[in-house]
Amino acid sequence: MAIYEINGGHPLNGTVNISGAKNAAVAILPAALLVCGKCRIENVPDISDVRILLDILEGMGADIHMPEPHVVEIDARAVQCTEPNKDLVQEMRASYYLMGALLGRFGKAHVALPGGCTFAYRPIDQHIKGFRALGAEVDENAEYVALSPGPGGLHGSRLCLDLASVGATVNIMIAATLLPGQTVIENAAKEPHIVDLANFLNTMGAHISGAGTDTIKIRGVNCLKGGTYTIIPDQIEAGTYLAAVTATGGDVTVQNVIPKHLECITNKLEDMGVKVIASDDSVRVISSGRLRPATVKTRPYPGFPTDMQAQVCVCMALANGTSRLTESVYETRFFGYCDELKSMGASIDITTKTATVTGVDHLNGATVSAHDLRAGAALVIAGLAAQGTTRVQNIHFVERGYEDLIGKFTAIGADIRRIET
Ligand code: EPU
Predict the structure, then answer these.
(1) Whole-model pTM?
(2) Which of 87, 347, 272, 308 shows the shortest CA–CA distance to 191?
(3) How far is the CA of 167 from the centre of ligand 1 (A)?
(4) Residue 332: its pLDDT value, please?
(5) What is the pLDDT of residue 122?
(6) Catalytic site residue 36?
């Protein structure tokens, strides 16, 4: 078991190069199963969720090469398997995109229910609703989902999601790309990685319009050809480094980002008193002095992301006054890290959906445990800002989604090490 050991209290200064977006990569890689040719996918983050997905695809018969770092070439023409390795599928959340990809390519799938971060009850009823609307028969139980064509066959369809689920929008887009007829998804999610998936599929020959709005139209095509596509930068990785410099103080530029995607985050950091300077593909944050308290409510894009809730909570814990942080996507997400922050001296009161965070003068180093990816990232930030030494356990959660976290933080002045225990 490895841990991170952090000696806190060093301001962060310098530049961080942001990797490709995890949540785009984990949608685009399974979608490559639809492509009848070679896909070259660039800016793929080197994180464990991606490595697991590549292992799954390879185990299914896909020909995969990594000719250089962050570049994956996939040729899935030889794949015949519609039942991906159960153990690997259960190691991550986004493996459920194999359902849509296999349904779209073969008309059938038998996929174990996914694993991944369990910070909340995470049903997939909207994915199932979408598959049924496309004409699939769904056999669902506690262990797997099996999909096959219903009596009328598979076809495009119009459906309205009960809530704007990222995962359901992705799965339905992937499944519908090769089906006859037009599919219309109403109340679709609008996150940047939805747009990135649509751009990838369109580059390969799909006809998808409206991604980034709440109505997405997919006109089915007979086949997708190969091509080259570059994944967008990771909004949440960038936001995490910006929150880190906000909490610790310093002057950090995140580069290779899309500043528009970060506005929902930087607007709140500015409210807390940091200076933000955006340019074409970078955002600089300068943080000095005590932070101001803020009011933040998480919402689907373009709102403040739930995946930044824990990181901004650390900033609030160090502000001069009382902040309110309301979660509207995953009610139970506070429980993954607030007790750990309290053990470092934070003052946080939680009612069902809202954390009231009364800022303290400083946090103290402690031994804490990550319970999910973003909770782990928040504990790293807390350790960087705290006085003394912090040890973060369960870091495999963090390594799911942050490429070279140690190298990137060390390069901007942090004292952080990965230790095998
Ligand atoms: N929901 C349902 N039924 C469904 C699907 C979702 O009730 O069929 C509910 C969820 O319980 C939740 C809300 O809808 O309350 C939103 O869930 P969504 O489906 O949008 O989330 P997801 O697809 O499971 C993705 C990201 C998460 C991120 C959320 C919200 C990926 C692989 N994961 O999850 O990312 O928190 O969207 O933006 O894209 C992370 O990166 O750390 C992470 C957890």
Answers:
(1) 0.97
(2) 308
(3) 6
(4) 86
(5) 84
(6) no
